[in-house]
């Protein structure tokens, strides 16, 4: 009754068939509509983007389907809002309490919102999994979102405390948790990546980035002179460094050196980021398992640099064009505010021009990022993945129910949304 | 009747069925090689789901089981398209639906902006008077903490924020207290005013919820007589009487909520939220300032001071502030304000609020 799957043309039975031009069209229209709807259109844009990425991904000759709708996301968001309003109101009232609790409520609130955000991340993944359909079966995700949120909070704290050294173990633990609870029909997923192997691969990058900063801070620590610093601050001065240089040249030199090394760290961080992304993606994909199906990534680092370079170029061009377009606007702006006593309406108009300009710039950059980084990265990841054990795909049984979109709504309201 | 080939997934297992697709008058029938009927779907139940362009993937609407039929034959695709009205390969239907979505989201945007422009100030207006004084005092303490942190640049260089502590300054405190007491006596505010002079260069004064008034050093320097200073303090008392500070906190919270959560973080960064809030809030303040002016004039009339002095001072400092983002200073046109003040003011009774010696001491309260 069943026939064997058609042999795939590419070396790996997984391909990306998306048309880049169609994707850019979708993004540009989306950006314009986001602007005029002050962002309400995001539910539709997100759905369009997912539909595009999912349906352009073919495994064994069959494309994946995203069956979620924008209306679901909107409803999920509204429910999340209803849940969050009392929380925010409580924080607002707590902040009024000047006592110890009021003092603490700020940091307590941030911590609580972080945990809630992680809870939302896991629930949102459940929604996305259950809206992913392949060969007539859905994926689904089980497991307690509360447990995930606690785990994630602990691991993120450890990562921050160790200045990123615990990051590989955070990744492997959390991915393990997610994949262990992910199913395609009845086929259980798991994650076979080890934190230590990611650590070994990432360590050189970490050292390259951290060493200049560490050297700068050490130099600063050795010649640190708190009294001098106090004095220099007290004399409300523009020539802060000059004053220090006069009293203690070593200390001034150390400050300059620390600033320079921080700059080097920043530049190195930016330069190494694509390499880091490549290492991390390779490690992640190679650890994914569903039933007997295993994945192996052959992602190369160079194309990753290519796409980030292209993004940087496009962003530069965009900002240049924006700058040229700004010249007449700046003139209008100046004319509106030029003579001393201006009416509130002209001030309002001028502020709106400024605000509109900022929105266009940010929206443009985020669109470029989605088009030039997110999609090409998806394509690179897909095209460099080798799948084996696909025979196991032929007789999987259905399981799982569609998940609720509240997690997506929460993630959106808390600004931790994924793809 | 048209017949063609397709691929069918029944939604129960991932098994792939090579099937014959039969288009009868009423239903689309799917049969396998053994002529078993795997599915019969009515045309009005059909929907096409997202796939790469060259194939058509069909599902049955509202089906809890995600069974899918895939057709690659262009002739069969065209035939199905003809039979089923709900399916549009041209995308015309989807375009129309998306058009509706765009119209509705834009309507929603307009209504949210209307809420921000009219609704939020109205709600704050209704809410501010019913907030109990005890809560307002707590609110004031919280706001004061933040405001101090923002304004106090003096303490960092070892000078206290409040004036009147240094040598030669203390003598100015008594006349200042006298002026405040004189104003307080006739003001009849629900809260007691705690006024102090603080070290800030700007010619300004602010009132916080709960009754704290900060008079800036720059204002004392710019004022040429007690009536001018009293006029500004009376204006700030007007804000307290109208509970403008509380209202502004409520407005700020409402707008933050509206822009920050409802509209989402679509450009990555709360800067838009803060900017939009500032613009909107400063547009609310126009009437508020006019009302506080009116209150100040009435209070000055009542205590027999020169109510026009407020206008004189406003003109003087209005000319001195640099042009630019005056919207952040939230004061409406100075000229208009002065004419309204003058129209309402009565002549003073001739007795100065402070005698020349007291005024001279007050001028030196910040050294």
What does this structure look like?
The complex is a heterodimer of chains A (419) and B (367). Chain A is an alpha+beta fold and 419 residues long. Chain A has a domain at 207-286. Helix content of chain A is 69%, strand content 9%. Chain A has 13 helices and eleven strands. In chain A, strands 4-5-6-7-8-9-10-11 form an eight-stranded antiparallel beta sheet. In chain A, strand 5 (132-134) and strand 6 form a beta hairpin. Chain A is globular and about 80 Å long. Chain A starts with 13 loop residues before the first strand and ends in a 6-residue tail after the last helix. Mean pLDDT of chain A is 86; it is low at 1-10. With 367 residues, chain B is α+β, with helices and mostly antiparallel strands. Chain B folds into two domains: 2-89, Pleckstrin-homology domain (PH domain)/Phosphotyrosine-binding domain (PTB) (PH-domain like); 125-363, no CATH class. Chain B has helices at residues 74-83, 92-127, 133-151, 173-187, 217-222, 226-241, 244-262, 271-302, 309-320, 334-344, 356-363, and strands spanning 2-9, 17-23, 27-31, 37-42, 46-49, 56-60, 68-71, 194-198, 205-207, 212-216. Chain B has a seven-stranded antiparallel beta sheet. Chain B has a three-stranded mixed beta sheet with strand order 8-10-9. In chain B, helix 2 runs antiparallel to helix 7 (244-262), helix 4 packs across helix 6 and helix 4 crosses helix 11. Chains A and B meet through helix 1, helix 2, strand 4, helix 3 and helix 12 of A and helix 2, helix 3, helix 7 and helix 8 of B.
In short:
The complex is a heterodimer of chains A (419) and B (367). Chain A has helices at residues 20-36, 42-55, 70-96, 100-130, 145-161, 167-180, 195-222, 226-234, 240-247, 249-286, 301-337, 344-383, 406-413, and strands spanning 14-16, 57-59, 62-63, 65-66, 132-134, 137-141, 182-184, 187-191, 288-290, 293-297, 385-388.
SSE blueprint:
The complex is a heterodimer of chains A (419) and B (367).
Chain A: E1 14-16, H1 20-36, H2 42-55, E2 57-59, E3 62-63, E4 65-66, H3 70-96, H4 100-130, E5 132-134, E6 137-141, H5 145-161, H6 167-180, E7 182-184, E8 187-191, H7 195-222, H8 226-234, H9 240-247, H10 249-286, E9 288-290, E10 293-297, H11 301-337, H12 344-383, E11 385-388, H13 406-413
Antiparallel strand pairs in A: 1-2, 2-3, 4-5, 5-6, 6-7, 7-8, 8-9, 9-10, 10-11
Helix pairs in contact in A: 1-2, 1-12, 2-3, 3-4, 3-13, 4-5, 4-13, 5-6, 6-7, 7-10, 8-9, 9-10, 10-11, 11-12
Chain B: E1 2-9, E2 17-23, E3 27-31, E4 37-42, E5 46-49, E6 56-60, E7 68-71, H1 74-83, H2 92-127, H3 133-151, H4 173-187, E8 194-198, E9 205-207, E10 212-216, H5 217-222, H6 226-241, H7 244-262, H8 271-302, H9 309-320, H10 334-344, H11 356-363
Parallel strand pairs in B: 8-10
Antiparallel strand pairs in B: 1-2, 1-7, 2-3, 3-4, 5-6, 6-7, 9-10
Helix pairs in contact in B: 2-7, 4-6, 4-11, 6-8, 6-9, 7-8, 8-10, 9-10
């Amino acid at each position: 009754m069943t026939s064997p799957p058609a042999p795939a043309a590419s070396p790996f039975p997984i391909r990306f068939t998306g048309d880049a031009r169609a994707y850019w069209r979708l993004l540009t229209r989306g950006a314009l509509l986001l602007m005029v709807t002050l962002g309400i259109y995001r539910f539709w844009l997100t759905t369009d983007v997912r539909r595009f990425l999912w349906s352009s991904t073919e495994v064994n000759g069959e494309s994946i389907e995203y069956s979620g709708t924008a209306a679901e996301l909107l409803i999920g968001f509204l429910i999340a809002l209803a849940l969050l309003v009392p929380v925010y109101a409580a924080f607002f009232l707590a902040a009024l309490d000047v006592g110890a609790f009021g003092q603490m409520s700020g940091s307590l609130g941030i911590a609580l919102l972080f945990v809630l955000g992680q809870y939302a991340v896991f629930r949102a993944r459940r929604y996305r999994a259950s809206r992913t359909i392949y060969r007539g079966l859905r994926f689904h995700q089980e497991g307690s979102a509360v447990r995930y949120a606690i785990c994630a909070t602990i691991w993120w704290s450890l990562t921050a405390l160790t200045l990123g050294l615990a990051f590989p173990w955070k990744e492997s633990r959390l991915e393990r948790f997610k994949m262990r609870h992910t199913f395609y029909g009845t086929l259980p997923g798991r994650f076979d990546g080890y934190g230590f192997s990611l650590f070994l691969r990432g360590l050189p990058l970490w050292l390259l980035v951290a060493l200049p900063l560490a050297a700068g801070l050490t130099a600063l620590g050795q010649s640190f002179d708190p009294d001098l610093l106090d004095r220099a601050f007290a004399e409300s001065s523009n020539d802060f460094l000059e004053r220090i240089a006069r009293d203690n040249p070593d200390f001034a030199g150390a400050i300059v050196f620390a600033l320079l090394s921080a700059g080097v760290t920043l530049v190195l961080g930016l330069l190494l980021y694509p390499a880091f992304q490549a290492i991390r993606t390779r490690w992640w994909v190679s650890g994914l398992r569903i039933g007997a199906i295993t994945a192996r990534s052959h992602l190369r680092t160079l194309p990753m640099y290519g796409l980030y370079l292209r993004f940087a170029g496009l962003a530069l061009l965009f900002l240049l064009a924006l700058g040229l377009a700004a010249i007449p606007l700046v003139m209008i702006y100046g004319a509106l505010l030029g003579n001393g006593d201006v009416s509130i309406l002209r001030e309002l108009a001028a502020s709106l021009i400024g605000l509109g300009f900022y929105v266009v710039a940010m929206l443009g950059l985020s669109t470029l990022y989605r088009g030039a980084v997110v999609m090409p990265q998806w394509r690179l990841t897909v095209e460099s993945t080798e799948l084996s054990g696909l025979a196991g795909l032929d007789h999987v049984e259905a399981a799982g129910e569609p998940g609720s979109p509240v997690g997506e709504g929460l993630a959106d309201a808390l600004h931790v949304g994924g793809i | 009747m048209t017949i063609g080939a397709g691929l069918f997934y029944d939604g129960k297992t991932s098994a792939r069925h090579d099937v014959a697709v039969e288009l009868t008058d009423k239903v689309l029938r799917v049969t396998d090689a053994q002529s078993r009927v795997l599915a019969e779907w009515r045309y009005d139940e059909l929907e096409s789901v997202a796939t790469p362009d060259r194939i058509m993937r069909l599902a049955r609407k509202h089906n809890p089981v995600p069974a899918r039929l895939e057709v690659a034959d262009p002739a069969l695709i065209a035939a199905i398209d003809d039979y089923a009205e709900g399916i549009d390969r041209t995308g015309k239907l989807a375009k129309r639906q998306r058009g509706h979505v765009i119209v509705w989201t834009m309507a929603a945007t307009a209504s949210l902006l209307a809420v921000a422009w009219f609704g939020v100030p109205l709600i704050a207006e209704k809410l501010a008077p019913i907030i109990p004084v005890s809560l307002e005092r707590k609110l004031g303490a919280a706001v004061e903490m933040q405001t101090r942190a923002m304004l106090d640049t003096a303490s960092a260089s070892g000078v206290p924020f409040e004036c009147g502590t240094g040598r030669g300054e203390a003598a100015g405190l008594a006349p200042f207290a006298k002026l405040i007491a004189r104003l307080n006596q006739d003001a009849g505010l629900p809260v007691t005013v705690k006024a102090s002079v603080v070290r800030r260069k700007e010619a300004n004064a602010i009132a916080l919820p709960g009754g704290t008034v900060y008079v800036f050093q720059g204002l004392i320097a710019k004022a040429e007589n007690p009536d001018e200073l009293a006029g500004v303090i009376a204006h700030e008392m007007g804000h307290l009487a109208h509970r403008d500070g509380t209202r502004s906190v409520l407005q700020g919270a409402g707008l933050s909520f509206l822009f920050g959560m409802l509209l989402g973080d679509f450009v990555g960064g709360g800067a838009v939220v803060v900017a939009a809030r500032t613009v909107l809030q400063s547009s609310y303040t126009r009437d508020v300032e006019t009302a506080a002016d009116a209150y100040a004039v009435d209070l000055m009339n009542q205590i027999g001071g020169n109510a026009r002095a407020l206008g004189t001072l406003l003109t003087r400092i209005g000319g001195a502030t640099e042009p630019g983002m005056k919207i952040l200073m939230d004061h409406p046109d100075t000229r208009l304000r002065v004419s309204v003040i003058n129209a309402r003011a009565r002549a003073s009774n001739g007795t100065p609020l402070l005698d020349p010696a007291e005024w001279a001491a007050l001028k030196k309260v910040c050294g």
